[in-house]
Amino acid sequence: MVAITDRRILADGKDTPIFVFGSRAESIPQALSLGWRGFDTAQEYGNEQAIGQAIRDTPAYKDGSITRPEIYVTSKLAGQSFRPQENLVESIKESVDKIGLEYIDLFIIHKPYGTPEGRKTQWLALVEAKKQGLVKSIGVSSFGPKHLEEIRNYSDEFPVVNQVEITCFNQEPALQAYCKKNNIAIQTYSPLARNEKSEDPTLNEVAKAVGRTWNQVMLRWSIQTGLYPVCASRRSQSNIENSQVFDFELSEDQMEKLNSLESGFRVCPENPLDQDDQPPYHWDGVKVTLL
Ligand SMILES: NC(=O)c1ccc[n+]([C@@H]2O[C@H](COP(=O)([O-])OP(=O)(O)OC[C@H]3O[C@@H](n4cnc5c(N)ncnc54)[C@H](OP(=O)(O)O)[C@@H]3O)[C@@H](O)[C@H]2O)c1
Hints:
This protein has 291 residues and is an alpha/beta fold.
């Protein structure tokens, strides 16, 4: 049985929390008190500053009872279609400054959409940011094996984390096998399928059998599958519930029942794992308009 504060060693030798709190700055004081030490943000969310500030303002951080090495912040390089892909290392430095915690523990490419050339430019910027000490570990999000294999053509550095939408309703077995073989840890975003499966009879049957809620069962499924969920609520009771997934276990039989729920159901409508398309954009210097 593991605990919310447990960590795992990544392929680059750095360690990462096994359960990350999602991008909700207002709930960070509660999350820290419940034991979360990993926090997620992104350039595209526009809340890097708020996330960093919320951590720094928490009394336990201020008085030194929680120290910087215990905290783990992930941020993400904005997608190729989000804004022009220039001065990327500079933009990573801006992210570090906005968060205000000296460095970023894990920096990932937010999505693979765009061209292979664009992904190469992004990856090499992450490699450079790591070399400069701006970030400790580098990875990707929603990259399929095809996108990951491209990286071997131009870099000796390989992603140590892939943040992907995986639940018992969408298990991506080929990607899971690829990541396992290549020692890439999988963080799972939208691990509760944004509540869209809360009424599922099998999920609720398992929840009833273990005396837990459907969302605790979904999170526990992730953890027992060897995945690292990224999850948050703005409601305090939900955060308490979500944090309490280390004091029960799903049996083999129950895991099998949940595995049988595979249906390719995703909350993000199109599967980015194989995609290259990049919507054309207009950048007016402040914001992007998709054309
Ligand atoms: N890499 C990427 O491209 C990517 C994409 C999406 C998300 N993410 C990251 O992953 C995190 C989580 O993903 P997500 O927000 O899309 O999906 P999610 O975790 O599957 O679902 C979040 C939704 O579930 C609700 N919720 C949370 N705990 C609950 C509980 N115990 N009972 C009932 N409802 C509960 C929340 O609503 P309330 O707040 O109203 O409770 C929220 O609307 C995000 O915060 C973000 O950091 C990354």
